[in-house]
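User: For my dataset I need records formatted as: sequence, then structure tokens, nothing else. Please produce one.
Assistant:
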Amino acid sequence: MSSLIDSVNPWLVAVGLNTILLGLAWIAPKKLLTPAGLFHAWFLAILIWVTLGWQGYAVVMFYFLVGSGVTRIGMAQKEAEGIAEKRSGARGPENVWGSALTGALCALGVGIINSGFIVLSPQFLVPNTSTPAPSSEAEMLSTSLQSLLLLGYVASFSTKLADTTASEVGKAYGKSTFLITTLQSVPRGTEGAVSLEGTLAGIVASVAIAFVGWGVGLIDLLGVALCVLAAFIANNLESVIGATLQSKYTWLTNEVVNIFNTLIGAIAAVLLAWTWISIIK
């Protein structure tokens, strides 16, 4: 089945599939995305399919469906307390790119390498010309860079799903909520607050989506562990940002913080992988 999909022009598959899904989402009674959000998600989904195939698509769809689901946990209670996501959890363009910009950049990097537009040299990157094929060393470098980008891709969504799950479960079921910088007890929904229930749920979510990445062949089992660890690091740092900086700068919106969060998660996973490779060598 996958070989049949791979043999068809990916642009045709991506546009056709996502146009159908956009139409279904448009007429669905329960809106997961705003009209503008639908268009941006459509564009993102096409980019992911063309660059990473159905494997990368499976990861982003898992994030979107599970993330949308956990957003609705305890919605009535969270709305009553004034801590629910706006628009009853329907995602707009800012939410789409706040969550997926880092992953999209990783996917785009893989697509550029696979296109042959850039030739990887052991010393530097050069635009592809009519020069002879790169050496085996350069080919190994290309493979290694692709592997790191794929790890960063999965880690970014592992980080974001963990963040979304931890936040929503914590707001709905957190019995004791603490500010991460001072451990002072604060109301649920406070920026920078953490709870045991939310933290555990976030770890489970990061494990789940990392295993999806492993199941479709984007990362190996070591990559699963690195994604989970990177997500934990990134989300704790995001809580620190929320507790210390977010209220001081108007430009530091939740969506901007989400971009920093996923970027930290992707970079952390890549650095952990480099460290591990250096150790075993």
